[in-house]
Design a protein that fits this description.
The chain is α/β, with parallel strands linked by helices and 496 residues long. The chain has 14 helices and 20 strands. The chain has helices at 32-39, 43-49, 87-102, 123-137, 166-190, 198-212, 221-227, 230-236, 290-305, 350-363, 377-383, 395-408, 441-450, 483-494, and strands at residues 2-7, 17-22, 60-64, 73-78, 108-112, 157-162, 215-219, 244-251, 260-264, 266-270, 310-320, 332-334, 340-342, 369-373, 388-392, 412-414, 432-433, 458-462, 466-467, 477-478. It binds ligand BES, magnesium ion and zinc ion.
Length: 496
């Protein structure tokens, strides 16, 4: 996909389709739309008068130029109310327009820069959002379909038409890098469990290391035993797939320390283990490594954007399966930091592998840690699938991540961490147990993780890695959340 900027008037562009925009409530076409309107003998004005074009957000009206313009197809794209436009909407409408045009066999699209100068949106942030919308919105996962003809065309070229400057070109490139990283995470999450095994995930991380010149280490079982990673080993012992602990490091400045550790839950399939899940929607649990995928993808984006910061991803990867060798309810295991855990439900496995990964990140000297995990169904019950729950021992860190999430359009919400919840994970026979009672399950899970981070500033993201339908820049399946949040957050640490 080629995304570029061109100077000029959209009416003069030769493409397969051009996109102009219209705000809800505007009485007549404005800007480039007015120009096109004139050349098309007032058709847009007329449609507005007839109320066939209302300008509602994501409204798409297709016109044909019938030889009056170099381009045949014209889309009038509704942007909603002018005072409500923001970059997240720019990203979303761009994606909707692209999917619409792809379904109509369009290959080259040219668009006005949507939102430039409105509500303080700079041309740069507008084109970055558009670039992200194009890449995210056109995402497909078809690698296991043997028939290549699919009724879907392919948009090969997208041109933002305005005034080209270096900063505009850079913003387009940045948006593309970030969105492609999110798509990389989506690919990993969409991969079925029989392909995306822990071994496969380690080899994908090795490929990233090679491509971007990053440092990588992959620990096998023996090394885990040596380190005392009883959580990761315990969860993996029911599976034939060997577990992996992946450490992928980006070094952006001359200091040996790790400024930020990224810990991602890498359960490549979660059956629940002996506490087996009902079969209905168990297949979704191929995506229980979305946290891991997000962390590897974030490092890949950062490696291309090159901020002056040292970031390391720590990924514990294993399957969670029942078998004669699997962990059993009632078993007691010891995590790497020496704490003992009574495992009362083998389906609360994410926190067991994260216990070791967080302990390891702390031991590596990470100055701050962010973890992302598809950790609890309870968080989805609390917040729905749209919003990620965030938990912290450091309010300043959380505030920064929430700011980054808002910028990315990846909704995130702070959840409580009151110490009163700790009593629910007290065990009668070990230091701690891996489940609480029926209530506040996302919070007791976070309180469990907190036991493994010492005093390190830490933020935990409990999220859903997938969505049920195409909407804006999301497409059905994996979302790529929270890659763009994390990339924004990391870049903001450096651009202070
Ligand atoms: N991976 C699941 C959580 C999950 C479920 C994420 C559905 C996304 C969609 C996790 O390992 C799990 O099974 N959690 C249990 C914990 C419980 C046993 C305390 C849950 O939420 O039911
Ligand atoms: Mg589970
Ligand atoms: Zn799980």
């Amino acid at each position: 996909m080629d995304i570029k900027a061109a100077t000029g008037e959209i009416a003069d562009i030769k493409a397969d389709a051009i996109v102009v925009s219209h705000f809800e409530g505007a009485k007549k076409p404005e800007g480039a739309a007015a120009d096109i309107d004139k050349k098309l003998d007032g058709v847009i004005s007329n449609l507005i008068k007839q109320k066939d074009v209302k300008g509602k957000l994501n409204e798409i009206t297709l016109l044909h130029s019938l030889g009056k313009l170099p381009t045949g197809k014209i889309v009038v794209l509704g942007l909603g109310k002018k005072q409500e436009l923001n970059v997240n909407k720019v990203r979303g409408v761009t994606a909707e327009a692209c999917r619409y045009l792809r379904a109509r066999s369009v290959s080259r699209v040219a668009s006005v820069i949507i939102g430039d100068g409105i509500n303080k949106i700079s041309a740069e942030s507008a084109v970055q959002a558009m670039s992200e919308g194009v890449v995210l919105g056109l995402y497909t996962f078809r690698r296991y379909m043997t028939k290549k003809e699919n009724g879907l065309g392919e948009i090969k070229e997208f041109t933002a038409v305005g005034r080209v400057k270096k900063s505009i070109e850079q913003a387009i490139a940045k948006g593309k890098i970030i969105a492609e990283a999110a798509n990389y995470a989506r690919d990993m999450v969409n991969e079925p469990g029989n392909y995306m095994t822990p071994t496969q995930m380690a080899s994908a991380a090795r490929q990233l290391a090679k491509k971007y010149g990053l440092k990588i280490q992959v620990f096998d079982k023996d090394k885990m035993k040596e380190l005392g990673m009883g959580g990761l080993l315990g969860v993996s012992q029911g599976s034939r797939q060997p577990p992996k602990f992946i450490i992928l490091s980006y070094k952006g400045r001359q200091s040996s320390g790790i400024d930020l550790g990224l810990v991602g839950k890498g359960i490549t399939f979660d059956s629940g283990g002996i506490s087996i899940k009902p079969s209905e929607s168990m297949a979704d649990m191929k995506g229980d490594m979305a946290g891991a995928a997000a962390m590897l993808a974030t490092i890949s984006a950062i490696a291309q954007l090159k901020p002056a910061i040292n970031v390391t991803a720590f990924v514990p990867a294993t399957e969670n399966l029942p078998s004669g060798t699997a962990l059993k309810p009632g078993d007691i295991i010891k995590a790497m930091n020496g704490k003992t855990i009574e495992v009362l439900n083998t389906d609360a496995e994410g926190r067991l592998i994260l216990a070791d990964a967080l302990s390891y990140a702390v031991k590596s000297g990470a100055k701050a840690i962010v973890d992302a995990a598809t950790l609890t169904g309870a968080c989805q019950i609390a917040l729905g699938k749209i919003t990620s729950g965030t938990f912290t021992n450091n309010q300043a860190l959380l505030d920064k991540v929430i700011t980054a999430a808002n910028e990315a359009g990846e909704p995130a919400w702070q959840m409580p961490m009151f110490d009163e919840y700790k009593e629910f994970i007290k065990s009668d026979v070990a230091d701690i147990k891996n489940i609480g009672n029926r209530y506040g399950g996302a919070i007791t899970a976070a309180k469990f993780l907190e036991e493994f981070v010492d005093k390190t500033p830490w933020l935990h993201i409990d999220f859903t890695g997938d969505t049920d339908k195409d909407k804006g820049y999301l497409v059905k399946g994996a979302t790529g959340v929270p890659v763009r949040t994390l990339v924004n957050f990391i870049l903001a640490q450096v651009n202070k």
